[in-house]
Amino acid sequence: QVQLVDSGGGSVQAGGSLRLSCAASGYTNRAYCMGWFRQAPGKEREWVAGIFTGGGGGTYYADSAKGRFTISQDNAKNTLYLQMDSLKPEDTAMYYCAAAHPPCSWRRESDFDYWGQGTQVTVSS
Question: 3-state SS of 14-44?
Fold first, then answer.
């Protein structure tokens, strides 16, 4: 079974940067859809970024993240990353990494069978 552990969250001033990590285990040589989601109190969970692993590594971003966030993977370390730059207060949320068996639709949470425990990101103005 795939297990995901999120880390790297913290508090930062607006305009600052953070890099989130997601350590994966139980990951076979089969390709997975892996993504980052976030949820702020009182709001629905939303998809932020995605990447196909074990394949071409194509990346995909929500409009709110494109140009500021970068999703990447280190296959040797079995780790997924989300580099977040130019952070805004509206980025404040609990961030979760997740994995799905392809094919997947990035915005369909039900497609993702495995989830990390979440890591808190707080951006102050």
Answer: CCCCEEEEEEEECCCCCCEEEEEEEECCCCC
Check whether 77 has a pLDDT greater than 90. Answer: no
Sign for the pseudo-dihedral over CA of 77, 72, 45, 104: negative
Round to whole Å and give the CA distance between 96 and 91: 13
Cα–Cα–Cα angle for 118, 44, 69, rounded to 5 degrees? 60
Q: What percent of the chain has pLDDT over 70?
A: 96
List residues bridging with 115 in a β-sheet.
98
Q: Give strand ranges (E) for the chain.
A: 3-7, 10-13, 18-25, 32-39, 46-53, 59-61, 69-74, 79-84, 93-100, 112-115, 119-124
> For all residues of the chain together, what is the average pLDDT?
93
pLDDT tens digit string along 10-54? Answer: 999 999 999 999 999 987 667 889 999 999 999 999 999 999 886
